[in-house]
Each structure stands twice: as C-alpha cells, then as structure tokens.
Design a protein that fits this description.
The protein is of the alpha/beta class. It has one domain. 44% of the residues lie in helices and 21% in strands. It is built from four helices and five strands; from the N terminus they run ββαβαβαβα. A five-stranded mixed sheet has the order 1-2-3-4-5, sandwiched between helices. InterPro entries: SpoIIAA-like, SpoIIAA-like_sf, STAS_dom_sf.
C-alpha cells in the first residue's frame, strides 16, 4: 500500500510504502499527485519511504514505477529513496548517474533530512 506523507513540503510528492504494493497504488495515488506537482512546479521532487520489503512490489507495480520514471524523465529534479536496505541504497546512488536530476538514498532515521533535501537541495546540518 502507498500513502501520502502529509508533512512533506508543498513542492515534494512524498509517499510511504507498506505491505504489498500494486499497480493500482501507482495509478490511483502516485500518478495523479505526481502529475499535479509537475503541472504546478514544472519539475518533480519525489520521495519514497520504503517501509516494506522490495519483494512486496507486484510485477504491475514495478511496471508502473518504471512508467512513472519514463513519463516524467525531463521533469525529474530531486528524488530521495528512504530505506535501510543497503542494496536499494546502492542501486539508487548508481541510478542517479543514469537519470536526469539528482537521486539520493537516505536511511530511515533521516526521513526529515530527506524531505528537506527534496524541497531545496540542501541537507539539514547536524
């Protein structure tokens, strides 16, 4: 299931992922919000907080996630993936070289730092 992170800055499409993730999660929630953000801000700042195992994404969800990336290829500005899974963190950091915009991984304990970075490109200083 995908839900909105309500405390996200206005210019960030931020989602929490728990349990099983389906194609419908992307079609009914993620796509409309992303579309609205891109139309309003002319760029996409995106945060995905993974609070589920990556194996819980159905094939349809994976397809929709890829489609989201392709549909918004020129609009990507910043994208944060928040997870404690090292494999996903490494993939995100490698993926950032291939995609326009900035992609960055954050550990779960740094959710608010990730939101702040998505909003303006800076991290909170410790």
């Amino acid at each position: 299931m995908i839900t909105i992170i309500p405390e996200a800055p206005e210019n960030v499409a931020a989602f929490n992922v728990t349990g099983e993730v389906t194609k419908e999660d992307f079609e009914n929630l993620v796509f409309p919000i992303v579309k609205a953000k891109v139309e309003h801000f002319h760029q996409l700042n995106y945060l995905l907080y993974l609070d589920t195992d990556i194996d819980n994404f159905t094939i349809g969800a994976w397809f929709e996630d890829v489609l989201l990336g392709l549909k918004n290829l020129i609009n990507w500005n910043r994208a944060a993936i928040v997870t404690d899974e090292k494999g996903i963190q490494n993939f995100t950091d490698i993926f950032s070289v291939l995609m326009p915009g900035e992609f960055k991984s954050f550990p779960k304990e740094n959710l608010y730092n990730a939101l702040y970075w998505c909003k303006n490109g800076n991290e909170v200083e410790a």
